[in-house]
Amino acid sequence: MTTVLKLGGSVVTEKAEPETVDEDALAAAADAVAAGTDDLVVVHGGGSFGHHHAADYGVSTTQGTHDVAGVAAIHGAMKRLNAAVVDALQERGVPAVPVHPFSAASRDADGALTLPTGQVRTLLGEGFVPVLHGDLVAHEGEGATVVSGDELVVELATAVGATRVGVCSTVPGVLDEDGDVVDRIEAFADVAAALGGSDATDVSGGMAGKVRALLALDSPSSVFGPEALAAFLAGESPGTTIDSTGAEPR
Ligand code: IPE
Q: Which atom of ligand 1 is nearest to the CA of 204?
């Protein structure tokens, strides 16, 4: 049983304060991870570490930079957050190790992502918990662009043959038009009205892009809030379950 878990950047950082870890939230998340039993790959987002530097340099998943100061600022901030997450996990006895996507991943001229995952699979097999993060990637024709944690989750889930995928963000699940949590999504049409229709290019942050990407996976996934992280890691399916595997194509 292998689980891929995304911790949203706004779950573990103070989003309004540049480069500030939300220590209580990170401690609670690390406690929940330490209590889990599955093999685990963790991916965390940028929160107040990545996003404001990316905005300063005008960098997104499609708009790149060749400015080495920009690369240093964005990647450097993400490495500092990654170290904080890895340290919090190690302090609780989790064999967490850092894996930096910028060192290995790339996009072609069409923006398609290639993420080598051999080291992640070997680390898992050796009993480690690899901890990746939203980062920059080399991008042909653009310099360096952002790779979101959500994109990494999709690549990793397939590469490690994940049995479960969890996306922990600040909302308790995918919300319908009334603001209630949708229990189960089997096709995008189930939530298209609530999520604003086709939003296929939204790969960093938006719920529509998350849902589309998670529907494409072979494994079921759950979208839930921080209060449900322990339940997810204990094997429950809190929040919204996204599972197209049993659904008719439509
Ligand atoms: C963003 O990662 C990484 C950078 C800005 C460098 P995510 O898009 O996964 O971050 P969150 O979860 O929305 O904060």
A: 8
Bridge pairing between strands 184-185 and 240-242: parallel
Domains identified in the chain, total number: 1
Cα-to-centroid distance, 133 and ligand 1 (Å): 8
Q: Measured in angstroms, how far is the CA atom of residue 1 from the centroid of ligand 1?
A: 27
Assigned token pair, 165: 């995928």
- The rounded Å distance from CA 197 to ligand 1 centre is 23
In a domain, 249, yes or no: no
- Whether residue 248 is contained in a domain is answered as no
Domain at 66, CATH number: 3.40.1160.10
| Number of neighbouring beta carbons within 10 Å of residue 177 | 9
**What is the domain extent for residue 140?**
2-242
Using CA positions, which residue lies closest to atom 4 of ligand 1? 50
Q: What is the mean pLDDT of each run of 10 residues along the chain (250 residues)?
A: 96 93 98 96 96 95 97 98 98 98 98 98 98 98 97 97 96 93 95 72 65 92 98 97 74
Contacts for 247 with CB less than 8 Å, ≥ 6 apart = 186, 187
For residue 200, what pLDDT is reported?
42
pLDDT of the residue at 15: 84
20-to-9, 51, 90, 145 alpha-carbon distances in Å:
11, 12, 20, 23
| 0.85 surpassed by pTM | yes
